[in-house]
Amino acid sequence: VANAGHGLGGPFLDQPVERWRHVVGTNVTGTLLLLQPVLRQMVARGEGRVLITGSIAGHIAGTFQAVYN
């Protein structure tokens, strides 16, 4: 199971770019960084499965979670 993520909270226009970029980096790039070495091992041994999960918040609007939702 692969899942990496967190929210930031607060008004989007008040958030420093560095903070929301960190959220995007964790939620997207973080998951991929975790998966790649595991997938290489699975391919090498010819077996394995991956289930990528996510929050239902990714499908709905949320107050003060513009970057996460």
Description:
By secondary structure, the protein is mainly alpha-helical. It is built from 1 helix and no strands.
Q: What is the fold's blueprint, element by element?
A:
Blueprint: H1 17-45
Shape: elongated
Helix content: 40-55%
Q: Give the SSE string.
A: H
Compute the number of strand runs.
0
Rg over alpha carbons: 15 Å
Give a quick set of tags describing it.
elongated; mainly alpha; 69 residues
Concise description?
The protein has 69 residues and is an all-alpha fold.
